[in-house]
From TrEMBL:
Shown chain mapped onto the complete sequence: 229 to 522 of 523
Annotated GO biological process: signal transduction
Ranges where the EAL domain occurs: 24-280
Transmembrane helix keyword on record: yes
Keywords for the protein's UniProt record, in alphabetical order: Coiled coil, Membrane, Transmembrane, Transmembrane helix
One GO cellular component term noted in the UniProt record for this chain: membrane
Protein name, entry field: EAL domain-containing protein
C-alpha cells in the first residue's frame, strides 16, 4: 500500500527498507560482484506518441539476474547501490550499455531522427564532477548523437541540488543531452524551480493520472499541470498509462507522449528491435487465443 502512495514518498515502507542490516550488507557485496559478472541487464520500455501509438523512444530500466535470489527489480537494489556508492559504477555501466544498444539498433535498423533513449540517473551521480566527461566519452565511443539521449532525474534531486548538480545539468544540456524531471508531482517541492532549471521535459508521475478517467476533477487538475509544464517552456510526458481510457483522456487534453503498461511493458532489446523493424504501433494487437485463423 505504501507503494501505491507514490514513488519517492513513504520510502520507509518500501520493502527494501525493511531488509536486515545483514541482508543489505550481503546484497551490497553481491551487487559489487554482479556488476562485473554480467548479472545486470537492461529492459527498455517504449515511449509513444499518444495520437498514433508510434514508438518515439525507450526508457532503459535496470534489472539484476541474481544467481540465487532470481530476478531482482531496481526498487529492491537501487537504494542499496545508492547508500553504498555502488551506484556510481552501476550508473556508468547503465549509460554505456544503453548507448551501445542504441548503436546496435542504429546499425541494424533505421532509427527515426526523433527516437530517444532515456537513462535514469541518481542524485549522487550528478554530484560527481566527472559525470559530464563520462557522458561525453560514452557518446563519442558509441557514436551516438547527444540529441538521442535524455537523462531522467527525480524531482527531489533537482530540489536539493547544489552547485555541482547545477553545473552537471548545465554542462549536459550544453552538450545537447536532454534533461527530464522524473516522477513529477510526487515530491513536496515548490514549483518555482521549474523555470530556473536547464530542463527540457517533465515526466508526470503515474499517481497523477491514476484516477483521471473516473474523476473529472482529477482530469481538470492534470490539464492544469500540463498547462503549467507548457508555460514553463517544457514538454510533458505521462507515465503509468495502464488503460485505453487514460490514454484517450490524455489525448483529449492535448498531451502528446507517454508510456505505460497499456502501450507496452518494459521489453528485452530484441523485442524493441522487432517493433522498430516492423514499424508496428502500440499496443500490439494480439490475435485472440482461440482464433481459428479462418
Ligand atoms: P522510474 O524511472 O519512474 O521508471 C518507471 C517505473 O514504472 C518502472 O519500474 C516501470 O517498469 C514502471 N512502469 C511502467 N509503466 C507502468 C504502468 O503502467 N504501471 C505501473 N504500475 N508501473 C509502470 P522499474 O523498472 O521497477 O523501476 C523502478 C525505478 O527504479 C525507476 O522508476 C527508477 O527510479 C529506478 N531505476 C530503474 N533503472 C534505473 C537505473 O538504471 N539507474 C537508476 N539510478 N535508477 C533506475
Ligand atoms: Mg525514469
Ligand atoms: Mg518515473
Ligand atoms: Mg522512480
Amino acid at each position: 500500500a505504501a507503494k501505491e502512495a507514490g514513488r519517492g514518498q513513504n520510502k520507509a515502507f518500501e520493502p527494501v527498507m525493511l531488509y536486515s542490516r545483514q541482508l543489505r550488507r550481503d546484497m551490497a557485496a553481491e551487487l559489487r560482484q554482479g556488476v562485473g559478472r554480467d548479472e545486470l541487464f537492461l529492459d527498455y520500455q517504449p515511449v509513444v506518441e499518444l495520437a498514433s501509438g508510434r514508438m518515439i523512444g525507450v526508457e532503459a530500466l535496470i534489472r539484476w539476474q541474481h544467481p540465487q535470489r532470481g530476478l531482482v527489480m531496481p526498487d529492491d537494489f537501487i537504494p542499496i547501490a545508492e547508500e553504498t556508492g555502488i551506484i556510481l559504477d552501476l550508473g556508468r555501466w547503465v549509460l554505456r550499455a544503453a548507448l551501445e544498444q542504441v548503436a546496435r539498433w542504429e546499425g541494424e535498423l533505421a532509427l527515426e531522427p526523433d527516437f530517444k533513449v532515456r537513462v535514469n540517473l541518481s542524485a549522487m551521480e550528478l554530484q560527481r564532477l566527472d559525470l559530464v566527461d563520462h557522458v561525453r566519452q560514452a557518446l563519442t565511443e558509441t557514436g551516438i548523437s547527444p540529441g538521442r539521449l535524455i537523462i531522467e532525474i527525480t524531482e527531489s534531486a533537482f530540489v536539493s541540488g547544489g552547485d555541482v548538480e547545477m553545473y552537471s545539468l548545465r554542462s549536459l544540456s550544453a552538450l545537447g543531452v536532454g534533461i527530464e524531471i522524473d516522477d513529477f508531482g510526487t515530491g513536496y517541492s515548490s514549483i518555482s524551480y521549474l523555470r530556473r532549471l536547464p530542463v527540457h521535459t517533465v515526466k508526470v508521475d503515474r499517481s497523477l493520472i491514476r484516477d483521471i478517467s473516473a474523476d473529472p476533477g482529477q482530469r481538470h487538475f492534470v490539464d492544469a499541470v500540463h498547462g503549467l509544464i507548457q508555460a514553463a517552456g517544457m514538454e510533458a510526458v505521462f507515465e503509468g498509462i495502464e488503460t485505453l481510457d487514460q490514454a484517450a483522456d490524455l489525448l483529449v487534453l492535448g498531451c502528446r507522449s507517454g508510456q505505460g503498461y497499456y502501450f507496452s511493458r518494459p521489453l528485452a532489446a530484441r523485442q524493441v528491435a522487432d517493433i522498430l523493424e516492423t514499424g508496428a504501433v502500440l499496443p500490439l494487437v494480439q490475435a485472440p487465443a482461440n482464433s481459428t485463423g479462418a
